[in-house]
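Hi U.,

Before I forget, here's the chain from the pilot set. I'm dumping it here mostly so it's searchable later in email.
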Amino acid sequence: MIDLHTHTTYSDGTDSPLALVKKAASSGITVLGIADHDSTSGWSEASAALHGELQLALGAEVSCLTEDGVSVHMLGLLFDGENQPLQQLLSDSRDTRIPRMKKMIENLQSAGYEITLEDVHASTPQGATVGRPHLADALVARKIVKSRDEAFTDLLHNDSPFYVSHFAPTPEDSIRAIRAAGGVAVIAHPFASRRGQVLSAGSFQSLVEAGLNGIEVFHRDQSEDERAQLIAIADELNLVITGSSDYHGTGKLNKLGENTTTQAQWERLESMADQRRVVSR
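Structure:
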């Protein structure tokens, strides 16, 4: 099984890199993609934990905004982790997260919700990139909502009055940075309409021109009809088709390996990196 999109405690997952690698190995996964939000901080721990036949496709999920304000997530995999322009792009995105979080908390407080930045910090693992899931966890801890899913559905979705955007590169700039660092770029869950606004089918041409390699088609937040539309787009534009769990541990319902990428599609995607960077024991 090949699962190219998972998260650890270095962003908004609940499993440490060590725990995730162990879980993946015991689950029969052969290639595991670790793509924490705007961060490569978990790479070393995950690589050190590697054992058996499991291989790692290390990367990051880059937070992007289109020019008309649609949130897009771009999976960068197999890039050079020492590439400074890409690391600067990731750092710039992380640096805006605290001011953004403060504003979202102010918005919630103005509406009468008793939540503080200290509550969010208490719900954020050491070293993690703070984000909305940690605010959701703080809302759960405060008993304002019952779960992360309820927090996002009711309060934290992209169209919510409490939502605040943050600095983010355009998807095209993100793709160019990932490709310049020798990696491959796969757009994550682009038609996941329950998350809010999504890309239009016509948006993919500019992404391909920037160097897009693939589309994450098989994802729990995309319906069968949305998947069919994405397969048609991928076929037309000659893009790799991937499937992934987007696993977050106990933070989301997503199960490790619930959606996967075929061996043929994975081999095609890996061949598009400028060198072989899969980590194995």
